[in-house]
Known about the structure:
By secondary structure, the chain is mainly α. It has helices spanning about 1-15, 25-40, 40-60, 70-90; strands spanning about 65, 65-70.
Amino acid sequence: MGLCAATAALLSAYLKDGENVRFVAPAICLQVVILVSLKWGRVTGLVGSLLACLIFAIFLFPRNGIAIQDTTERVMLMMLIGGTLIVSAFVPRNFPPV
């Protein structure tokens, strides 16, 4: 979970000024979440994904009140959560360690 949160924090720090590229941060973080899910299990991947989404929503994407302004950024966060749910559905419970 810490690896997902650290990846999200680093991406938030490096991509904060790049308005044209910051929407790809959740897609990059999804790859880390997939690896975490494969290595440590479903629940760890799900919680890591939620932490990453929370970090992106707070530190990376500009908000209007409690909502994120740009629809592309909202869609990318939903894709991160949806992708994590799909991956966790396909990861077997007794997956051998990598």
